[in-house]
Design goal:
Shape: rod-shaped
Radius of gyration: 23 Å
Oligomer: single chain
Strand content: under 5%
Order of helices and strands: H
């Protein structure tokens, strides 16, 4: 009985660790996208200033 409980908790830990990794990957992708948008914003601002 106790072995089953230990196994169940180990499975839950493994699932949560997998979720954490998925979220870390998603945050990394989002941060990268934010950086891309910031660069794009700077480029557009430069073009606007050069045009005016």
């Amino acid at each position: 009985m106790l072995d089953n409980l230990i196994d169940e908790y180990c499975d839950q830990v493994a699932n949560k660790e997998s979720e954490i990794q998925r979220l870390v990957d998603e945050v990394t992708r989002l941060k990268s996208r934010v950086q891309e948008f910031k660069v794009l914003r700077e480029e557009l601002q430069k073009q606007f200033q050069e045009a005016s």
